[in-house]
Amino acid sequence: MAHYKILGQDPYWMNFFGLMLLTVIEVAAVGLDLSTLMTLTILTVIAIPKFIMIAAIFMHLYGDDDSGILTMTALFPAFFIIIMVLFVGLTHPDATTGLPDWCRPGNYGL
Amino acid sequence: MSHDDHSHPSPWGPHDWGHGAPHNSWGPLVMSMGIAIFLFSLASVYEWGEFMGWGYVPVSLLGLSIVLTGLVAIWRQDMSFDGSYEPKATGAPFRRIDIRKVALWVFLMSEMMVFTSLFSTYMRYRFGIESCEDVFLSGNWVEGTSVNCFEPASHLIASSWFHLAPGAINTFALIISSFTIVQALRYAKMNDIDDDLRRRKVTRYLGTTWFLAILFLTMKMIEWFLGFPLPGFLAEFNHGHDTIQSLYSEGYLINAESYQHHDYDTHYLAEHGHGVDHDSALYAMMQEGTHPGGHMMANIQVSASTFYVTTGTHGAHVFGGIIGLTYMTLKAAKGGYNPNNAVSIEYFGLYWHFVDLVWVLVFPFFYLY
Fold this sequence. Notes:
The structure holds two protein chains of two kinds.
Chain A: H1 11-31, H2 36-58, H3 67-90, H4 95-98
Chain B: H1 3-7, H2 27-45, E1 46-47, E2 50-51, H3 57-79, H4 99-128, H5 132-138, E3 146-148, H6 154-157, H7 161-189, H8 195-226, E4 228-229, E5 243-244, H9 266-271, H10 281-288, E6 297-299, H11 301-333, H12 343-368
Parallel strand pairs in B: 3-6
Antiparallel strand pairs in B: 1-2, 4-5
Helix pairs in contact in B: 2-3, 4-11, 4-12, 7-8, 7-12, 8-11, 11-12
């Protein structure tokens, strides 16, 4: 259980209100009919704090005695996730021509 | 009578937790086998969305009944758990942390990899296959011949507030349910309230979480299969239609070889005053008379599969949560939770928050973008 407060208030209630607010902004951003790039940027920017708020406060990865080691445990798959995303990029049909010079085989900017 | 006999009078439970941990619970092993049988046989029941006959249905039901047997065993063994025995890890780096908690986090790590695989598959295809809108505007198609392209489900779902409603309601439902489960944990851990008040509060919050999980799957069913009618005065906000069609009735299916959408129909666009984008190659070709226009057909099997597999896997996790919540709500109603064993709610909560966490990513990237 949380042994701290956020702005002097109960952390679960504050987290709940924060998540609701971010979700309203998220849905509204799509309704505003912005450009694809702008919409994707807003969605990504909002998804990151939502992800952290749930993990840190609701899943107790912040503020408990064992939060540190459990956070490290939770982040362990991040290494594999990065590799997976990297290969998604490298196997893109445009990878051989669309990537910058420095990361194409035989042309490392040297 | 040996010590072991004394601790575990029946393999079906209930356990005598005061004598130590039940090392011999066979429930998880049996459940794993049941799930394997169920999934393997279920995969043979349908092929490309077509029912392949009743041959494998009995095997699927057998798998389900094995799962149920394992579940009942676990529940019978856990029902008597009062927190009197909570084994701690002894080795680094998890020393003095509850073994159950460590195990759950390791399980969640494997779950992260499952969903990462699904997300990376989606990304690979989303960015690797030309979108149907781009293909349509490029003019590289002829009416009557299907083209391969990526059609994100969000094209249908985010086309109006009403189509988006089930997904948006589900997002709020999961966030609220994450909150209600920590409230259940909070009251279960309280030392300074009487047992009856604790029982009522914990039951109420777990029951609310259960209800929200049911709501989630109901909305999912509406979105996928059922759709819903709109009152007449709202039709004008839905392109003049008085019903919100399901993805199924829109033809957004894993076996859709010749999917059609009115946004890819030059005649429809002209009739409704939109017309084809004047900056597009298709418009130029139509002006030159080198493209007759018409209704583009698309093979969207890849895009529909990534959508249904990812959101369906998430839905299956919600369903698993409902099963767990059903048991926990019943145990709470019997006054089964107290400050000593409240961590059981916390550990289930970790799973449930993870399901919420995945939805935080699924919703924007599969429903909105």
